[in-house]
Amino acid sequence: MRIVLAGLATSHPYTDARTLTRHAELVVWEPDPERLRRFTDEHPAAKVTGSLGEALATGPDGVVLTVPNPGVPEALARVLETGVPCFVNKPAVASRAQLDALDRLDVHDRVLSGSVLRFAPAFAGTTVDPGEVLAVRATVRHDVGMWAGGYNAWQDTPGEGGGTMVTMGVHGVELLVALLGPDVRLVGAAGAKRHYEGLRSEDTGVMALRWGSGVTGTVEIIGVSDDESYSVTVHRRGGSDTIVIEGGDDPVKGLGYEGTIEAFLSMVRGAPSPVPWEQTRAILDVLVTAREIT
């Protein structure tokens, strides 16, 4: 099996590769020499290519795509031409223009994108009866202080990577849509800088959601935090249930990275994406709309 890692724009493909290397020959393309060196130091057997086209010409069985958000639609279009399965690391887009460009693509049923938390053992397989649900809440605790120092400035730039509202907010929206489905719209959002004044975006945020069924939801984004954790609370008449997702002793497994790659490899073997594109599109629309109004 041959897997192309097309871009190393965030930390995620480095983590993905640790699982993939147990199953496949790795081919990598990344224009930034320092990021590429960091990768090849860990994976010296990986075949290095000089362009996306060269990487795709190696005849991969699947592609993990991780490029800055403005470049995702064009890069994904080139991957789609090959017909092979593709996992697009989150979030696929971060602005309305990027989403419009994505909508013009013919996305097939072996394209997966979204938060790895959907596949975390603490959450995977969780279901609810929407008729019993009064409201839901997702809380994302992930420190964004690295951006305040200039690291990956494109992620912190609202018009490029979407900032904290999009890049961290995707985790909360993803978990709630996984529970209640894609018939959802944003009804309000707000963000603020409470600690990291050097940011281009915000370090805290909140979104209010409403499903067609009438269920309401809240996504809280806490970007100033000593610990990384995520939780989902489901409120019913008889009380509330909360699921907590943490890295634990094995963050690759505990946060869902391993499960995500297992889902991707199932696609490589012929299965459709376990996440319908309708859900991914709904999540992206909520995030883009939140970014627009904040």
From TrEMBL:
Domain GFO/IDH/MocA-like oxidoreductase stretches: 131-235
Pfam families membership: GFO_IDH_MocA_C3
Full protein name: GFO/IDH/MocA-like oxidoreductase domain-containing protein
